Design the sequence.
């Protein structure tokens, strides 16, 4: 970890007057502060790192201090998850160019991954998602990626930006994206041809109405993710007045927190980036508190992850065997968490919901089962 110090700001938020956490059970008093005086992250499960680079976002300042504004809110919260060890690495230094900052962030995220830790990136603009992905690409690791965003940032632009980063993520060769899921898009802001293209690639896109209709249906989607990127524009304006381009429709703040908790429960996810928070517009600091609560819920979900058993350990599951439309299959329900898995014809177990089990009991093929089969073929 000491090798990362040249890439990090010399002053850590924990040392600033804005860190007003005084109670011994507040996060600001319990979090492990990494830096020149402490480079030991051996016991940490989760590493927080900030990067304010936003030259890839049109019309905004080159650099954002969003990460420290979020820390100010996070550090004042109370720590209910004492068995989960969280460390804060501070902020990546602003580079002379956009490319310099990205290179420094890649180095930091690669080291976090190599150490077997989960990276929570508090970012500037969403094109930094590519630096999250680069960690896996450098290792040749094929992954499942997901984005929570009201837009699908698949514009074909010459210059990389937060409106076009998905083009690079999904098309750059060699490509290591096995599956991509997009959660919470709003149809009237999305070119239908984009959706057709993603559907032909067997990727899954969930419009806002479907997500809000049954939030629990998104849990299996996030359970299989290795990388998650969140743009706060997915939150409706009434819950996000700090967003200048927010839509009157969108997720409520508590719904987004629930989705982030599902992400924390995922046994695969090792990289989460949260983008689009602009403290200069957040006069009441509600945005900082919202993101801080999202982080708190991620840790709460991670607590569930640590106690979940793998499907291979059948003693920890209830097993239900049935046949639907000619297919013999089985469903597993975790005794520890109540989560469900279903078996594909090749014997592979994939996450599902109780609703999928009920459909199979009625001799109907669950859509999730069909989509998984399409991707195998």
Sequence:
């Amino acid at each position: 970890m000491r090798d990362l110090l040249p890439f990090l700001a010399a002053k850590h938020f924990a040392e600033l007057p804005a860190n007003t956490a005084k109670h011994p059970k507040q996060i600001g008093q319990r979090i492990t502060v990494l830096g020149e005086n402490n480079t030991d992250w051996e016991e940490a499960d989760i590493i927080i790192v900030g990067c304010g680079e936003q030259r890839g976002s049109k019309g905004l300042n080159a650099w954002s201090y969003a990460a420290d504004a979020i820390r100010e809110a996070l550090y004042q919260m109370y720590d209910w998850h004492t068995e989960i060890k969280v460390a804060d690495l501070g902020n990546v230094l602003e580079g002379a160019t956009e490319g310099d900052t990205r290179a420094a962030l890649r180095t930091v995220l690669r080291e976090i991954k190599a150490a077997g830790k989960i990276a929570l990136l508090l970012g500037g603009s969403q094109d930094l998602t590519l630096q999250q992905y680069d960690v896996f690409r450098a290792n040749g690791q094929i992954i499942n990626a997901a984005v929570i965003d009201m837009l699908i940032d698949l514009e074909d632009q010459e210059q990389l930006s937060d409106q076009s980063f998905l083009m690079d993520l999904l098309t750059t060769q060699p490509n290591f994206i096995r599956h991509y899921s997009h959660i919470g898009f709003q149809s009237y802001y999305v070119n239908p041809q984009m959706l057709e293209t993603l559907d032909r690639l067997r990727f899954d896109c969930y419009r806002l109405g479907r997500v809000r209709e049954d939030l629990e249906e998104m849990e299996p989607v996030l359970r299989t993710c290795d990388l998650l990127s969140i743009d706060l524009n997915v939150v409706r304006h009434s819950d996000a007045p700090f967003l200048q381009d927010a839509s009157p429709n969108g997720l409520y703040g508590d719904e987004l927190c629930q989705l982030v908790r599902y992400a924390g429960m995922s046994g695969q996810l090792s990289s989460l980036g949260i983008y689009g928070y602009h403290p200069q517009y957040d006069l009441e600091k509600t945005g900082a508190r919202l993101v801080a609560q999202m982080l708190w819920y991620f840790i709460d979900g991670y607590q569930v992850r640590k106690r979940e058993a793998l499907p291979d350990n059948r003693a920890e599951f209830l097993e239900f065997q049935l046949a639907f439309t000619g297919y013999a299959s089985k469903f597993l329900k975790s005794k520890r968490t109540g989560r469900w898995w279903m078996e594909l014809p090749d014997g592979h177990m994939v996450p599902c919901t109780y609703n999928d089990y009920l459909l199979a009991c009625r001799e109907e093929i669950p859509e999730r089962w069909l989509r998984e089969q399409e991707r195998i073929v």
